[in-house]
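Give me the 3D structure for 7-cyano-7-deazaguanine synthase.
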Amino acid sequence: MTDKKKAVVLVSGGLDSATVLAMANAQGYECYALSFDYGQRQISELNAARAVAKAHGAIEHKVVRLSLNDFGGSALTDNNIDVPEEETEGIPVTYVPARNTVFLSLALGWAEVLGASEIFIGVNAVDYSGYPDCRPEFIDAYEKMANLATKAGIEGHTLSIQTPLISLTKAEIIQAGLTVGVDYSLTVSCYQADNHGQACGRCDSCRLRAKGFEDAGTDDPTRYQS
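Predicted structure for 7-cyano-7-deazaguanine synthase (226 residues):
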């Protein structure tokens, strides 16, 4: 018998979610990794998610298939919208409408089935590209809703949403990840990576990642397209 707490960890295959999974594992949680094939522009991040889940302590890894590309509305789910390669003001076109709300809802369902008391998600309100569903206000509101909407919550088995990266810079995230043994060479952050997981080096996510490694003063293991 184990007395470890169970946690569902959202794992995209990117730098942030890999860090969160390794952190949760280091804290002694039994980690159940959850990823989504949601019709995103590139699928190499899911290959990265599988590698990250295997390397960093997931008891089980599920990939749920969705079709957010049926709605479009984002450069990540609609091939008619270009991924921007220059900085833009406001909420960028790479924002996927309601994505974290959808993802957290499915994580909530699995957590209730597992009897897990925590959901870990790698949202960040510092280097977060302007996404509204990465803010503390959203997480707080969702956690309150989750405990109102579930049998577990009504019966007093409170669920919490853990966001250990929410107030960290990208450099601080990388430094924290290195202390818990994250292998960042396994991760893919690029919005338009090729089928081999090689990054474009030009999109917003690539720029944030490169600056993070530079500011952290550590080697960047990212593989770039030639």
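Strands lie at 6-10, 30-37, 58-65, 118-120, 160-162. Let me know if you want a second pass.
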